[in-house]
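Agenda item 2: fe (iii) ion complex prediction
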Amino acid sequence: EEVAPGAVHVPGWLDPEQQRELVVRCRAWASGPAPLRHAVLPGGGRMSVRSATLGRDREPYRYRRTGPGTRAPAVPQDLRELGRRAVAEAYGPGAPAAQGYHPDTVLVNFYDAAARMGMHQDRDEASAAPIVSLSLGDACVFRFGNTLTRSAPYRDLELRSGDLFVFGGPSRYAFHGVPRIRPGTAPAGLGMRGGRLNLTLRMTGRAP
Ligand code: MD3
Ligand code: FE
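Presented output:
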């Protein structure tokens, strides 16, 4: 379960009803206030993953404040609470990281069968607080690397619908990626029409 120091995988943390409800809410955000778009990389390439944020707009600068003129709706209170419970589940309810965990942004990623995410570090946040990842829909191969290079050593793990992964402590700045989706592996009755959703709850470290 503890894949590396601070990296805790909890398979099947979300029950089927919680998964279905999150899928419904992601669909509502995507068709309304938080459309899923292919991000364009600094070099001009288009990411195969489609993404949207709640709570903070990442464009055109990183994690702007929300407010007049910005699109992203605030992170719903129950998702903030879910994030706190996730960190408590991973590190124990008494852990300092669980006490002060107040995620102010949610990144929603959608992967179709061909989408991938290359090895990278998450360094856009000014906070080193843990990142909470929730997986929905098709399973994927998740590549968890080291903090020094985007290449080996790494481990390949399977992430399935309902899985929780918390990345904090020494794992917070590890390289990681999603080299492949496993089409057709979503649980029956989830209501996904193919593909994989990943929600990451984060603390940006910006003033409210
Ligand atoms: C390990 N997303 O959005 S979530 C990303 O499945 C991202 O969509 C992947 O990487 C996805 O940046 C992986 C798991 C994850 C998230 C943040 C991490 C793993 C991490 C930060 C540090 C180390
Ligand atoms: Fe990442």
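Discussion summary: The radius of gyration is 16 Å.
Owner for follow-up: CH.
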